[in-house]
Amino acid sequence: MIHGRIFRIGERIKAKRKEKNISVEYVAKALGVSVSTVYRYEDSTIEKIPIKVFDKLCQIFETSASELMGNDSTVQKTADSELPREFENAQDAMEFMLKMPTLAAFGGYNPDEMSEETIVEFANEILQQLKLVSYKYKR
Q1: Can you give the pLDDT of all 139 residues of the chain as single tens digits?
Q2: What sign results for the dihedral spanned by CA atoms 85, 47, 12, 108?
Q3: Which partner for 75 in 8, 20, 26, 84 could form a disulfide, CB atoms 3.0-4.6 Å apart?
Q4: CA angle, corner 133, sides to 118 and 136, nearest 5?
Q5: Phi and psi at residue 115, in whole multiples of 5°?
Q6: What is the Rg, in whole angstroms, of the alpha carbon atoms belonging to the chain?
Q7: Could you give the CA distance from residue 119 to residue 132 in angstroms, rounded to a whole number?
């Protein structure tokens, strides 16, 4: 789930759409939703944007999930790795999950029904598993 008010994603969606000079009608048709739904994403009336919809918005706007989420690079990274040490907020955790299409497509969980705390916990658990596997096969 992506909470629009907390992260102001709706504002960034609207700004990116206008920057690209794309109509609301085009976005609605590409997403397979109504025009009013797009407006509700933009004004954050809809606070939970499904990952598949968010991913499609990134494609439509030709932007990364990181940019559309307004990444401020608050995730601390280790000196020798591209993986963050841990996630402290839901925005960074969701960004991490969105950057991993295999994780998003694998299933077994529904981020639309997860609290922000659960998203952070889930992403940190995935992160730890990745670190364990990486360490095991590191040369």
Answers
A1: 444 334 478 888 999 999 999 999 999 999 999 999 999 999 988 877 888 888 899 899 988 877 887 764 444 433 334 677 888 887 777 777 766 656 655 666 777 777 888 888 888 888 888 888 877 777 6
A2: positive
A3: 84
A4: 150
A5: -75, 165
A6: 16
A7: 20
**Which residues contact residue 133 at a Cβ distance below 8 angstroms, ignoring those fewer than 6 apart?**
none
Tokens representing 84 are 């963050």
Tokens in use for 126? 């995935």
For the record, the structure tokens of 69 come out as: 């989420």
